[in-house]
Each structure stands twice: as C-alpha cells, then as structure tokens.
Amino acid sequence: MKNGQLITIQNLVKDYPVGRGYFRALEDINLTIGEGEFTGLVGPSGSGKTTLLNIAGSLDVPTKGEAQVLGQSIGTLNARQSAKLRNHHLGFIFQTYNLLPVYNVFENVELPLLLLKMGKDERRKLVDQALEWVGLQDKRKSRPAQLSGGECQRVSIARAMVKSPKIVLADEPTANLDAENSHNILQTMEKLNKDLKTTFIFATHDDKVIQYLHRKITLLDGKVAKDEQIVKQ
Amino acid sequence: MLALKLAFRNLIGARLRTWLNVFVLSLAFVVIIWFKGVLNGWNEQARRDTIAWQIGGGQYWQENYDPYDPFTIDDSHAPLSDLALKAVEQGKMTPMLISQANMYPQGRIQSISLRGVDPNQNIIELPAIHLKIDDGDIPAIIGERTAKNSKLSVGDYVTVRWRDVNGIFDADEVKIVHVFKTDVPTMDLGIVWIPLEKHREMVNMSNEATILTTSPETGFIGKIQGWEFKDHYFLLEEIREMIKTKSLGGYFMFIILMSLAMLAIFDTQVLSIFRRQKEIGTHIALGMTQRQVVALFTVEGAMHSILAAILAAIYGIPLLAYQAKIGWAMPAGTDDFGLTIAEKIYPKYSLGLVLGTTLLVLITTTIVSYLPARRIAKMEPTDAIRGKIQ
Questions:
Q1: Which residues contact residue A40 at a Cβ distance below 8 angstroms, ignoring those fewer than 6 apart?
Q2: Interface contact B5-A98, CB threshold 8 A
Q3: In this structure, what DSSP letter does residue B54 have?
Q4: Whole-structure pTM over 0.80, yes or no?
Q5: What percent of chain B has pLDDT over 90?
Q6: Which domain holds residue A184?
Q7: Are residues B251 and B277 both part of a single domain?
Q8: Contact at CB, A86 and B281, closer than 8 angstroms
Q9: Which of B9, B15, B286 to mutate: most A Cβ within 10 Å?
Q10: How many domains does chain B have?
Q11: Which of A13, A56, A60, B43 is most buried (CB neighbours < 10 A)?
C-alpha cells in the first residue's frame, strides 16, 4: 500500500454471465483513492457504480485486473480473509438502511463490535459515542420500525462508524430520504470525515450528495468518464 | 459463542413468532415425556403387582402345564418332591393345584379354572386367609371381575362341577366367602379359589400341585424332577410385549407431535431465509462469512428446542409432578381388558427419559434448521444485501 492510498484499482474488468454470454459491467477501471477522501462514484443507473463499490467492499471480485484495498488484493482473498477485511476496516451504508428489525438501535450499532469480539464495557462506550455522533442517544431502545427514514439512516451511519473503519462505502445513502434529512445525513458524514479522517466513498446519482463531494468520479457504461477534484468555496 | 448470543438475541427479538414455535415444541416435549412416563409407570406397577399377586420370586410349573393350552390341564399335576415339600414347610414356596370345572351361577353354565391354594400361604397377596373357615361348606374366594361376570357376591352359594383324576364327574356347592380386588386379571377372570387340601380331595390328587410359587426372596431353589422353573424374565414376558406394543403406539404419537413441531420450525426457517435476505447480506457485509451465517441460522432454529425445554420445564414440571402424585385414573371397563393395569396409573419419570427426549428433540430441531439454512451458502452477498434472491 503506497503512502495514503487505501484503494488502488488497475485495469479492472467485471463481467456477469448472461445466458451463454456475459454482460460487461466494468471495463478498464484505473483508480486510486486516498486516506480521508470524500469521493463519489457518480453516474446513471447501470453505469457500474454499485458493482465497483461492491468490489471495493470485498463483497464481489473482479473478473480481470487488480483491486487492492488496504494492501490486500480482493481477487485473491478467501471467504475468511475477505470477511476479516470487512469486519476490521470497512463500514457499509445502504440505500435501504438494512437495519435488523428485531434489534433495537443500540443492538444494531453494537453488532459490528460483537463480530470483533469486543468486551461489553468497550462496546457500550463505543456505541454511545457513535450514537452521539449521529445524535440518537435518546433512541437507543427504539426499534427500526419506530424510527423515521432519516433516523434509520443515521443508525446505519453509526453502525458503519462505530468500529472507526478506514473506509465507509455508502450506496445511494439518500435515495429514500427527503431533502432535509438528506442534508442532515450528509452533514453528519462530512463532519465524521473531517474529524476522524475516515474515507467515504459514495455510489450515487443524487445531486444533493454530489454537492457535498470533494471528488467526483463519473462512470458511464462501466468506464470512468471523468475524475475531478471539487474545490470547496 | 457469538452465534449463540446473536441467535438468542434474534429469537427474543422475534417475539410472538418465536414463542408460538416454542410453545408448540414445548407441548411436544411435555406430551412425549408424559406419555413415556405413563408407560414407565404402568410397566412398573404391572410388574410389581404381578410379582406380588401371582409369580412371587418365580414359579415351578409341572412339566405338562401350558396355560395357553387347556387340553394340558388334566395332565398338569404331580406330587411334590421332598425338596419341594421341605421348601413349602419352610415357607419358601406355596403349591397351587389347577383343574378345569364348571359353575352354575343362577342356572347358567360357566367354565372356570378351579384352583386350590393354601389358606396359610403368605407368599403372594391373594387373600387366601379367608378360606380358613371350617363350617362344613366349601369356602371359595373370587375376584371382583368374576363376581361381576357371574353376578355372585359374598354369602352366595354356587354349584361347581368337576372331574377327578379318573375322569369321574362330581359336583357340590361352594360358598363365596370373600370377593377380592386385584389389578392382576390372571388371578381373577374365571377363577374360583378354594382351599388346597379340599381341592386335592375333590379331584383325588393327594399331595399334588400344578404350580409351585416361590417367595420373592427365594426364587430358584434347585432343579426339581418333573418341574420346570420359570423366572421373572419368562413370566413377565406378556407385560413386556404389551408395553412394547403400547410404546410403538407412543412412537406414532411422538412422530406426529414432532412432525408438527418440526414443520413449524422448518417453515419458519424457510421463510426466514427468504424474508431475511437483507439481514443475511448485512451480516456478511459486517464481516461474517456465509458459513458463519449458516451456523447462526442453524443455531437460531435449534435454539427453539432449548427455549421449548425451558418453557416445558416451567409449566411441565409442576403439571407432570402433580399428575404423578394424583395418578391417571383409567376409564371404566379398563379392568376387563385382561391386562394388568391399575385403576390409577402413576407416571414414572426418570432423568434419562427427560435428558433423552431433550437430546432427541435438540438433534432433530438442529437438522431441520440446518437443511434450509444451507441455501444461504449459495447466495451471492451482493444480491442478498438488496434482497434480490427469489
């Protein structure tokens, strides 16, 4: 892993089998993403944003080429190594929140720490801290069904951030939220990025998200069409 | 350990869905244990009563005697050897003479087994002491079933006709001096008990007997020429076979109950795999391998049986203990079935029965939970996260 570079992608190709042939979702992708970035993979539906995000998140593997995340080659990891990478260093935020409905807020946020086999006191401390980041200390006993969409997504952010991962991958995090909640969520993530130096990578086509990005990587038909740094005023 | 913790959390979180399954499974637990307990209790009571009332420590049968072949009865008698006489004198065994006869209660003819028993015997619980009357009548005792069938009661006289050793018919009246109650129908149904010496005199078989019943403390006293010793294993075979048959019926009930419970769990698991795809994907995204998720879902399913065991213990222990105390009254007419069965059966539970049932249910539940959970291993995590699998 080169200094400050968390993700390095070289000549990446991803094909999906379709009938007797295949569909090429990503073609010749070359990227590097560094520490503390607030980057978005932007593009229309079917452009390959989520596929690229999944490969970066070690949930999928490249067909060809190389994807290195925190110095580990995604294509060569076995299931256990891949799970370990996600467990220790990656956080996920999903469009539909993916909170466990039978757990309350505290338990949902605590789950990644349980998988890390952390002690009870430490877990409680870190969960409380994460809930404070997203402003949900008073909702710790509530179940997801009792929360608004914005609150659910904030729980999802707390769950992704609770273990202080190096990278957070967010797939259309505002797609199910209204404008006000979207801005609240994005401001929260921007603050966490600034305070904790956590790298955020979004897959989005939402303008509300795009206006917060520091770097915008535009994908079109599975290829990088544009990669631009955005200078904030 | 983590799977246990998460599975427990998932089950508790699922609330009503969990408790419905757990309740059905706990019912299976309680009913299976109760039914097996009833069979155990019946078996034990039947063995105890049969030993106390009929077979003592084992019996010597005259070599021609076959209780299932009435044609052998006429030849099933022999004089007691010196060894047998000595044992009788020492109170280690009691002789019994059996012959076929007819009685005529209220003018009807009824085949009976006329049995001579020593009024002084105290080896079996038959109340032969009532035969120690010397008022010129032939005293007889009968069981409640025989009394009911022949409409006889204490004080009644009934004509009995028999054939002596030479085949000559004779008849006399016997007086019913006592009607006894026993749970062992083979000591009651169609049997008229009279004093041994009187019986010997009537059939002209001096010093002879058909069966020698040893005391429970004595058992086999040595080989006696012309007699065959029958031990408990042989004499209790009927009870064993009967319990085996009832157990087989019990297994069908067990299979039906278990199938219902397992169907509920299997159904829940299959539904869970489909309904909780996002959850499965989320677990994988958070750092679990698919095998760990399979293990989690399997443990979750299997844990139904642990919760069911706890629930079953909460209401089952007091319920079964109360039932074991007050017993289970057999329906009217059960005593006419010809089976050794008490009016009330007191179920008998053992640690082995409870642990065995728990283990069996736990293993079955785990297998039933694992089968649908295997599908998780075939899921693409990216599809699972989006809940796209159909």
A1: A201, A202, A203, A204, A209, A210, A213, A215, A216, A217
A2: no
A3: I
A4: no
A5: 53
A6: 5-229
A7: yes
A8: no
A9: B286
A10: 2
A11: A56
